[in-house]
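Example 9 (inverse folding). The structure is encoded as follows.
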């Protein structure tokens, strides 16, 4: 069974003094992060969080969140990432549904009345960067089995009740390899974490920056996105959804800064031509991407957009895509998730040939490009023809 070495340990050995994470005035080297992860890993073992233990995380983006994830994975535990935009009652229901042992949160007061306090861990109190507990790094290499469960993430629920998708290390690893290869993200680059970590578009950035041994920039709690863009001049890559891009383009100073980036990765749904035209006026490096939680993020991504009407996307490495007779996009390959956690067991959610039905309508052009037309459940019939509202 194929194994991979922990990318953090590899980066710590190769470039111990290199800055890995920047957040406000805080700068952490790869070695500092590795030491922190080792210390937190030992703490987790002391409260019986070991291999295959499911742990809920309900918190906003922060360096502490990243350290916790890396420590959980070092112990081969599973991180169940809960959406902080849902009420705590909903998060508690998911905590119970997934049978988690503990909940790590930056809002412990919201769970005290329902969850036994000994199973609530205050994320910010647990991790302090002022003093690193571990003086020496463990020389043992951590290895991950590619088919080992890493995270459970809830889908957006835009077409029904959110589903709990299980992603393995291999899913996240290979997706990051394909993404870095296509977008040329390297050790000299920095990715701004503009999407929440409970969203696959945010989580995937963690693997990309570690594999490339680049930098991860995390806005502080008090910074909005446009402030972060102006503050962190080292940023080269940024992931956005259309609403974010629209708001950023209303500010000329921000738009001019974005024009200096290498990549603006735009996803999360259909992109209006008028928005692309506005982005082209500032010569922004827009790359449109199609992805989903069940594929560990990107499936296909366009080259830098030069024509607002041209939105075909290159199918990335490690992804297999085909179109059904009903024009539905089907996916298979090393990036495709293990399945959904439903009623206490795994549902692989694949057809007999192993294909996952995305629910999206599209077509393959020029053999290696994908054109996404819309959602299957949005289609309606008018005058005897199938109509996609996204195309209107």
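The amino acid assigned to each position is listed next.
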């Amino acid at each position: 069974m194929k194994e991979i070495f922990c990318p953090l340990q590899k980066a710590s050995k190769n470039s111990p003094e290199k800055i890995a994470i920047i957040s406000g005035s805080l700068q952490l080297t790869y070695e500092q992060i590795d030491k922190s992860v080792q210390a937190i890993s030992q703490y987790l073992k002391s409260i019986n969080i070991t291999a295959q233990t499911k742990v809920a995380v309900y918190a906003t983006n922060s360096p502490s969140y990243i350290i916790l994830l890396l420590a959980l994975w070092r112990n081969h535990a599973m991180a169940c990432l809960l959406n902080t935009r849902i009420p705590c009652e909903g998060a508690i229901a998911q905590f119970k549904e997934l049978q988690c042992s503990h909940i790590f949160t930056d809002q412990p007061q919201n769970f005290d009345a329902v969850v036994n306090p000994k199973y609530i861990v205050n994320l910010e109190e647990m991790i302090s960067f002022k003093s690193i507990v571990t003086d020496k790094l463990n020389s043992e290499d951590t290895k991950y089995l590619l088919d080992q469960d890493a995270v459970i993430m809830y889908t957006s629920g835009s077409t029904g009740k959110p589903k709990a998708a299980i992603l393995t290390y291999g899913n996240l690893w290979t997706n990051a390899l394909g993404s870095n290869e296509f977008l040329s993200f390297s050790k000299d680059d920095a990715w701004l974490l503009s999407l929440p970590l409970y969203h696959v578009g945010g989580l995937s950035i963690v693997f990309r920056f570690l594999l490339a041994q680049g930098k991860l920039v995390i806005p502080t709690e008090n910074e909005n996105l446009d402030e972060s863009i102006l503050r962190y001049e080292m940023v080269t890559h940024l992931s956005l959804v259309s609403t974010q891009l629209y708001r950023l383009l209303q500010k000329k100073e921000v738009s001019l800064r974005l024009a200096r980036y290498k990549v603006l990765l735009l996803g999360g749904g259909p992109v209006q031509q008028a928005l692309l035209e506005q982005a082209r006026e500032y010569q922004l490096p827009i790359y449109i991407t199609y992805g989903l939680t069940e594929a560990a993020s990107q499936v296909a991504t366009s080259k830098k957009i030069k024509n607002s009407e041209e939105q075909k996307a290159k199918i990335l490495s490690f992804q297999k895509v085909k179109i059904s007779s009903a024009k539905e996009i089907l996916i298979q390959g090393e990036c495709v998730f293990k399945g959904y956690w439903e009623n206490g067991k795994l549902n692989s959610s694949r057809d007999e040939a192993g294909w996952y039905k995305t629910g999206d309508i599209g077509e393959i052009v020029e053999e290696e490009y994908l054109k996404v037309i819309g959602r299957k459940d949005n289609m309606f019939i008018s005058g005897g023809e199938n109509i996609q509202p996204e195309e209107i």
